[in-house]
Specification:
about 40% helix; alpha/beta; 12 helices
Length: about 325
């Protein structure tokens, strides 16, 4: 992030009394950790902060963190937002973390309550992005957690070992253990967090998965189609519901097979919605593909959600877009 971005964040926060934090649906370690770290920061500067979570179920690492912090932070559902608002609308601020898409936030209706919005994210903006208010977008950052490290550093706020560990887990998750989307700032952030007591052992504990869930994930690897000898498309079954992070992990795994330059994983993330996660080493522009499909990302990774389509229809749509890109 640029220094001007940090100043915008500081100025916007300073003018606000009540600050609400919201990340994407189906929270992962990066989303929950950046929300908690921002809430920690706000408490340190005497701001009233609320984390909005509507998810009914959580992936195992997120569940562990929520259990650990129970009672330490003000966590509410979107139905409680209205009653918590300051009477002066200008004193309310909504900070959106780890996404910039309206359809991906915990509850897009919450956006209507706020005149002041601040997006802090590492994904590319697209046609469905939140353009009201300020957008602090750093596609060079590996994760929202890495961005929070820089913000905390600029505020000169020392974090405790738990916050440091949570943020490190978010970075490890989004970089696939420092193998993707890293730069010198990513490694500095990891060093910074270890100085404040981040535990690598605890990070691995947070990343541990349920074995039955892991087996379900691996089934995606049994239905792969190779396109043009360099693109791997994995398809879930019509009956299995996956989490967004499941699709992302499989996409990252596929990149490590010989000759694969782009991986695309398609699966249902709800009864009516199909999710797509894609990864590339950079030779094929993921952001261009995902934007055409209604999502976003950057050159190396991206995702989208397609409503009320079956998996076969989505696969056909993806192939058509790939063909258009190839013909350019």
């Amino acid at each position: 992030m640029k220094l001007n971005d940090i100043k915008t964040i500081q100025k916007t926060i300073k003018k606000s009394k009540k600050i609400f934090l919201m990340a994407h649906k189906n929270l992962d370690l990066d989303a929950i950790s950046s929300c908690i770290a921002m809430s920690y920061l706000l408490k340190k500067i005497n701001k009233e902060a609320f984390i909005i979570i509507d998810d009914k179920t959580n992936e195992l690492g997120v569940e562990k963190i929520l259990h650990e912090i129970d009672g330490s932070y003000e966590i509410i559902t979107s139905t409680e937002v209205e009653e918590k608002l300051h009477r002066n609308k200008r004193k309310n601020l909504l900070i959106i973390l780890d996404t910039n898409k309206k359809d991906l936030v915990q509850n897009k209706e919450v956006l209507n309550y706020f005149d002041k919005k601040l997006v802090i994210d590492h994904h590319e903006l697209g046609k469905n992005s939140i353009y009201e208010g300020y957008q602090i977008i750093d596609t060079e950052s590996s994760s929202a957690s890495q961005m929070l490290v820089q913000i905390l550093n600029e505020y000169k706020i020392e974090v405790n070992s738990n916050i440091a560990t949570f943020l490190l887990s978010g970075i490890v998750l989004d970089t696939n253990n420092f193998t993707l989307n890293t730069n010198e700032e990513t490694f500095y952030a990891a060093y910074y967090l270890t100085v404040f007591g981040a535990s690598n052992k605890k990070v691995q504990y947070l990343l541990k998965q349920d074995i039955n869930h892991y087996i379900e994930q691996q089934k995606l690897l049994t239905n792969i189609e190779i396109v043009n000898d360099k693109i791997a498309i994995a398809k879930g079954t019509p009956y299995a519901i996956y989490r967004r992070e499941d699709l992302a992990r499989i996409a990252e795994t596929l990149l490590f097979f010989n000759n694969i330059e782009l991986s695309i994983v398609i699966g249902k993330i709800s009864k009516e919605d199909v999710g797509i996660s894609a990864r590339s080493f950079g030779s094929i522009d993921v952001e261009e593909l995902m934007t055409k499909l209604g999502g976003g990302g950057n050159k190396q990774y991206g995702a989208t959600l397609i409503e009320k389509k079956n998996i076969s229809e989505v696969v056909d749509k993806v192939k058509k877009e790939l063909k258009k890109m190839e013909e350019k």
